[in-house]
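Bumping my old thread because nobody answered last time. Still need a sequence for this structure:
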């Protein structure tokens, strides 16, 4: 029987519009046109100009270069005003934004350009030689645009340009700042494509839609307690999951973007003080960079600054040092496939009264779902049933909701596998605590199976991090003749500290079951991605090549 509430009450343009974060910028420019939207060194750009330039970009892409719905525009840019304009201008003409990791090699970039079918590429002058190398390997021949950031002071490189080279400001000058930009025809339309790391094969293109970007952008504001006119420092790469959707969040709260071309301790501290920054994000390595800076570099802050971090839980000492320096650290968790962070360690006030070691145990948990995420569970991947909420039984962390990707571009098999059973399978293993907070134990591929027993590399790393001489730790599996596998620990020491394998092995024996103690300790510099994540696949290869 049809409900009377569904009779003659149809959707129409007056009561239903597709959700898109592009409307956040239009509203900000309309209501607060003179408020400063972007700070980049000496540059101050208000919302009226930010909106006008984004519309010019959309107009030029559409009218001068024939780019429209479903086309891909790729960008290889640092954290600059142009990158922010691309997050609006590209989808404003109906196209899909493809942000490229600036630290990739040419072959991977060439693969992405071809796979995404890039029709136009916008490149920072610093990265133009890399892009030229990539284009020489690629099949596509996109229009090439160079962005010349005044803050990049290095001399220009000489190279043979493959085709015509257009200046970014000239590209904008071709457009109309009054351009009647395009809303998505459907909020399910793609707004961006971001590629996974591709450490076990070709990268997969994660396709995000307007609805998800809209919801996560708002979720960010709620989760981080961003009030109107908050000031956000860009220590997180904007190419990483579209900067966790913060390029769109800031417009929703009429905030100010403070661009940072290079993540350096002196620039971070100066910007924190001079621009009255309220929020920033980054991997734990960014915190280590900040608190290890010389005292003459650090600046006194007259307020509490919110720092949001992902990846591995920060060591207890780092958290304590950050708190003393004036920062409140919150742990987030998510993946490219969930638009960035979709889980937050929502802190309870009473936890702050606990001893520091108990607080650290709570801080180590990834947490609970963001408001726009409908469901978060730890599930047995065989039975597809939730594991007991005992904080001990491991399963796979799975997501369900509107901030989960559309799927993997041109890869139906991977899409079906990732969403089997009506859940997004993260590949992360974890436990569910009785209070509903999840805690990661490992990636499924990083679990070490020794004598039939599962060893969590994260658990071993947590013990290593507790040692005051350890700065960075990473644990991977190493072949063992008797047990099959045993942990191998890679360790970076705090500057000026000395520690040998025997002392660190004794430390682990005090805090771990005997079978979990690493069989080998390697003191070395640990490779990381541009976003601060440890590249364990490189460490596993080193172990395999060394035959240890």
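Sorry it took so long. Here it is:
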């Amino acid at each position: 029987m049809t409900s009377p509430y569904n009779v003659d009450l149809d959707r129409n343009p007056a009561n239903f519009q597709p959700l898109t974060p592009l409307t956040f910028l239009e509203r900000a420019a309309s209501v607060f046109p003179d408020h400063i939207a972007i700070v980049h060194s000496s540059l101050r750009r208000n919302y009226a100009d930010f909106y006008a330039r984004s519309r010019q970009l959309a107009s030029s892409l559409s009218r001068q270069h024939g780019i429209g719905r479903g086309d891909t525009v790729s960008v290889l840019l640092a954290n600059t005003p142009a990158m922010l304009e691309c997050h609006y201008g590209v989808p404003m003409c109906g196209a899909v934004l493809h942000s490229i990791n600036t630290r990739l090699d040419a072959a991977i970039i060439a693969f992405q350009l071809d796979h995404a079918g890039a029709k136009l590429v916008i490149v920072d002058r610093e990265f133009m030689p890399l892009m030229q190398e990539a284009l020489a390997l690629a099949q596509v021949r996109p229009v090439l645009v160079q962005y010349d950031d005044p803050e990049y002071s290095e001399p220009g490189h000489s190279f043979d340009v493959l085709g015509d080279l257009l200046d970014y400001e000239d590209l904008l000058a071709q457009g109309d700042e009054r351009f009647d930009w395009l809303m998505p025809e459907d909020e399910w339309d793609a707004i961006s494509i971001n590629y996974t790391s591709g450490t076990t094969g070709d990268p997969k293109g994660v396709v995000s839609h307007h609805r998800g970007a809209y919801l996560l952008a708002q979720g960010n504001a709620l989760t981080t307690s961003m009030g109107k006119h908050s000031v956000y420092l860009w220590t997180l790469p904007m190419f990483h999951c579209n900067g966790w959707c913060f390029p769109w969040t800031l417009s929703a709260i009429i905030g100010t973007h403070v661009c940072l071309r290079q993540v350096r301790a002196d620039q971070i501290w100066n910007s924190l003080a001079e621009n009255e920054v309220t929020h920033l994000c980054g991997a734990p390595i960014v915190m280590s960079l900040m608190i290890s800076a010389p005292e003459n570099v650090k600046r006194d802050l007259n307020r509490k600054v919110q720092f949001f971090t992902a990846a591995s839980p920060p060591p207890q000492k780092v958290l304590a040092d950050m708190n003393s320096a004036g920062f409140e650290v919150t742990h987030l968790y998510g993946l490219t496939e969930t638009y960035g962070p979709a889980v937050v360690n929502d802190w309870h006030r009473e936890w702050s009264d606990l001893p520091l070691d108990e607080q650290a145990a709570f801080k180590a948990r990834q947490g609970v779902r963001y408001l726009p995420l409908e469901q978060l569970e730890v599930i047995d991947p065989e039975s597809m049933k939730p594991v007991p909420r005992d904080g001990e039984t491991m399963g796979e962390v799975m997501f369900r909701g509107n901030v989960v990707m559309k799927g993997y571009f041109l890869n139906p098999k991977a899409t079906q596998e990732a969403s089997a059973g009506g859940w997004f399978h993260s590949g992360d293993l974890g436990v569910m605590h009785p209070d509903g907070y999840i805690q990661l134990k490992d990636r499924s591929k990083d679990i070490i199976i020794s004598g039939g027993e599962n060893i969590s590399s994260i658990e071993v790393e947590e013990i290593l991090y507790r040692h005051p001489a350890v700065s960075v730790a990473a644990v991977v599996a190493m072949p063992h003749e008797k047990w099959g596998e045993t942990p191998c620990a890679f360790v970076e020491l705090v500057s000026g500290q000395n520690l040998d394998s025997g002392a660190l092995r004794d430390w682990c024996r005090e805090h771990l079951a005997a079978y979990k103690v690493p069989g080998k300790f390697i003191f070395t510099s640990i490779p990381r991605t541009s976003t601060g994540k440890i590249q364990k696949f490189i460490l596993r290869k080193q172990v395999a090549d060394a035959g240890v």
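The chain has a mean pLDDT of 92. Let me know if any region looks off to you.
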